[in-house]
Amino acid sequence: MHPISTELLRAAYETATRFDDPLISYITTDQFSAVYPDRPDWAIGPFRRDDSLTFTQPGEWPDPTGIGWKDGFVFNPSLLVEGDTLHLFYRASPRKESMCSRIGHASYTAAGGWVDDPGNPIVYPTRDNEVLSVEDPKIYKRDDGRYVLFYNGIWDFEGTEENERYPSFGHPLEGIGCDIMVAVSDDLVHWEKRGVVVPYEITRLWVKGAVIPRNTKGEAVRIGGEYLMYLSEGCNGVRYVGRSDDLVTWRFEPQEYLDLGEWGGTLFEVACAVTGHDDSGDLVLDFFYQDAEGELAAGQALYSVDAPFTQRELHRGGSLAWGGLAEFGGELYFAQGWDAAEYSRELYFYKATEPSAGDGAGGADGAGTRAASGSGAADA
């Protein structure tokens, strides 16, 4: 692994400021979540934007790395509810979906509005496997009250020992590694990094997931006495599930849990695992995939909490709530920044609604649950 250095951090930042992928410009939240064709009763959503909770990052953060880092786009957040306070953990990048990201925290109350954490960035590159980026926070509250934050560490493995030791023939890579990292806190202010969650013998240098069943407050839910983690991208093309007693130390085993069946297509990444949103005892996985026609799409899969790997039904349409759904003020929300203008540093909140009369497969703009054509998962 290449040692982290100011030179490598600066090179990553300069590359990120030039990032421009035509596929990314087509990604819009409404294309995935605004309309659900043939919606079953168990599906969560569709969702409509609620401007009353719009978050705007108020100003530039200090740069602990000393490279002059600045951001222009905030997205892929995670939500946690504590009493009357809504906590937002979000990814900030120089450009939409670029690397060289940092992770920030903000909180909202009805009385005080949004307050950006004065300690931001709460996570920034300090380790060799974070030199290109730290991305996509997923926050969970443990049953003992402690907080556990997962994020992706991105690094360049070209010319490294790891590249030789852990080939990934089943999930070909292009010189960039992705690790699931974990940090812990007792107060949401002071964070202690604990390092890599999934060993390279399993990931083969690329893994995404850290999707743990949680309720609508952001509390991780034990299933069968343990916490579960769904891994869904990388791992040499093999699907794994993790088990843990403390959310920090994990053991993993191969486990199939999602079959697109007659839909065809390819799973990219599970976005979240939702339970406790009603009294059904259901567990819903929300996921991102490429359909049989090569279109990017969202879906949901239904399980029981008593059988979290036995898929009962599939539904075309999902939220792509990467950090999970949260109930606040009696409404069910997720947040995303994809539809904000470049450099506005805005995040929008989307509220679950009942489908209106006339909703159909095409939606108002004919997009339905599909986005732009493409051969990859972008960096959503």
UniProtKB/TrEMBL annotation:
Biased composition annotated in UniProt, kind: Low complexity: 367-380
Region feature (Disordered): 356-380
Highest taxon listed in the record's lineage: Bacteria
Keywords recorded for this protein, A-Z: Glycosyltransferase, Transferase
GO MF term set: glycosyltransferase activity
InterPro entries on file: Glyco_hydro_beta-prop_sf (IPR023296), Mannoside_phosphorylase (IPR007184)
Name of protein: Glycosylase
